[in-house]
Amino acid sequence: MTMHTLPFRPVLLSAVALLALSGCNRKAAPPAMPPQQVGVITLHPQSVTVHTTLPGRTDAYEIAQVRPQVTGVIQKRLFTEGADVQAGQQLYQIDPSRYQAAYDTARGQLAEAEAAEVTARAKLQRFKSLVQAHAVSHQDYDDALAAEKEAQGRILTAKGQVENALVDLGYTRMNAPITGRISRTIITVGALVTANQTDNTAVVTRLDPIYVDVNLPAITLLRLKRELAEGRITRQANGEVPVTLTLEDGSPYEHTGRMALSEVNVDTSTASVVVRAIMPNPDKLLLPGMYVHAQLDEGADPNGLLVPQQAVSRNTHGDPQVWVVKPDDTVELRQIQIGQAIGSDWLVTGGLKAGERIVTVGLQKIKPGAKVKPMEDAPAPSASDTSSQNKGQ
Q: Which PANTHER family does the record match to this protein (predicted)?
């Protein structure tokens, strides 16, 4: 019995020794890392006033080129260059002598026609009674009737000539066609002007009000129409779109205008639509051709969601994305849709909802599915102080 058990004892001792050696070499497992602390904000809906800021150019509300309608020599210039003129105010005087003579001649011809008509009418009255008494033939009566009608026609022709001569005489007084500011004069006293010439003698420009033309991207116009249809944006009570200006030197323009119209055709070279605003200009500060920035107040989004720009990153395709903290304090990377820039925030148009938490601090230290320790950031600005400016995104 003893002889059979002795060979197994060394093997047993070797196994025990190996186990003991293995226990000595085993190290204790490291402690688990605590959740990464991150700064977050909770999304709350708020009323956002939506603006679109675009560059534009001023354009004259009305502009009239002063040109002569008759031929003659300029006798007088009756305005001060660069001054404001009123519609109907006389600007130049063309020598009227030949047109006065033509008018007098036309009046004389009218008097002759009227005298001839008196004779023809009297003859017709006599023949009317004589033909009834068979003292004259019906042919003579018909001739007298035709002569009286012809005399009336000559009167009408003469009156037309008088009116035409009077119009030409009136054109010797070159008047301002509109109210506005007149340019420098192109001609001087003593110069010969001709009827229907192509060169201007001066230009009158109406400056109050004045147009501002801006190019609105077609994609922005589509977004506005879609958001209005969905009720995301509420228009002004009167239905108008207010417009404010910033001048080229950065100073604000004190008067507020309104959007007048938008073109129906998209410019294929710029993919934009021309939007025209009407601005009051009582001080004549704005001049045609000036460069300005126009801000169009489109309306208000009553349930806007704002995300800090620092919380938004871009994937390889350029799509915006944010880290969202789920209810179990784990994070996920989510693609979102953003609209306009509002100060240091983005206006969210899709991908997020109210009440969700967004990581704003510590984005580089987290990965999808990681456990985090969220710390709420400073509260969002009040809704009444929020406004939106489109920077072309």
A: ACRA/E-RELATED COMPONENT OF DRUG EFFLUX TRANSPORTER, MULTIDRUG EFFLUX PUMP SUBUNIT ACRA-RELATED
